[in-house]
Every structure is written in structure tokens, then in C-alpha cells.
Amino acid sequence: MGVKTKFLLAILAGAFAALSAAKAEIILFAGNGGDLGKQESFTSGSITATAIAINTEEPAAPTLHQHLLGLGVKSGWHDSSQIDNGGDDEAIVIDFGRSVNFHSILLSASFIDDDIRIYGTNDHSVAAVTSGGLSSITSISTLIAQTSGNLSTFVSLNIAGNAFQYLIATVPGTNGWFADDFRVKKVKVSEVPVPAALPLMIAGLAGLRLASRRKRGPSV
Prior knowledge:
Number of helices: 3
Shape: globular
Structural class: alpha+beta
Order of helices and strands: HEEEEEEEEEHEEEEH
């Protein structure tokens, strides 16, 4: 095998590696930080996720609240410090900075009456919602998972097959006497394969074909 052929094969190997599925990263939001402010960044491997507290019925300013069970939203001294609809409707928007592949999300502090909704979107305005109720989020997002009536404190939802920049955890709206509430403990995501590897792969294949034709000689 010639040096040129080896070089072209190396290019192809690198391109295929770049196009293959990236390693999944687990981003943990749990901790004992208490009130963190409007937003906080969390990093795992090559992925940084910025969690943003949302109250869709301000003026009560929302704050992320970190607990060993995960992240919630606090929108006043009387609030439960979870993502809830007891009073104002709340959500946590997780911004990954670019589109990523979703795998799963682990929620906690969910009990038998709780309804939960998980959305995805690429609409940047979702990170700055302050009014309009939950429809201001749901109208610009895609519902990717939902659950209700869970018997376990921890609920893992499969959200594979979705790729968005923003992941939204919220509730469906007012729930009568009892509020829906839960926390986000961790999310599993991975990088979207790099499209820039495609030109390398095409160039490598074209180079191998050309080298093969030269080796065989001109056709008669």
C-alpha cells in the first residue's frame, strides 16, 4: 500500500470518527447550593448547559433553587422552590448553546398527582419568557415527553431521538387544589455529529478512486 493511499485512508478514518455518535455526557444539577440566581451553568465533558429559571407570570422574579434532589424554581418566599404551578406557572429552560442530541432526563420529588411536560425548541426567545402563561413556552416548542401519576420519587424519561438547543421542563398548568411540582436532577445528552467531516470524507473517497484508476492505468 502506497504512502498516498495510507494518507487517504487516514483521512477517511478521521472523517468517519467525526461523523460517528459522540460520547453521551450526564449533566448533574443536584447539589446543596440553595438559591443560585436567575441562571447557572453546569459542565460535563465538552457540553455546558445553562439552566434558566422562568416564571411565565412575572413580576415575581424567578430564582433557581438547588437541592440534593435537583433544581427547582423559587418565585417568592411562599413558593415551594420546585418547578410548580402553585400560583405562578414556572419552568426551567436548559440552554446547551447549540443543538445537541437528547437521551434522557431524570426528575425527582414527583408524586402521584404530578403532571410533567418536557419540551424542546431552537427558538431563542424561550429563554427570556416573563409573561403570557405556559402557552408562551408551549406555542414555540415541541412536546417530547410527558408523564403523570408516578408512584416513585424519581422519574426517568426517555427523550432520545430529539435534537434541540433548548430543553424545557415544566407543568401543564393550573391543577386545582393541588399543585404539580418536581425538580430536574440530571440530563443525558451528546454532541450532534460534525457536518464539517463530510467534505473530508468525500475528498478521501475521491482520492482513493483516483489513486485506484491510476494504478490500473488508462482504460482501452
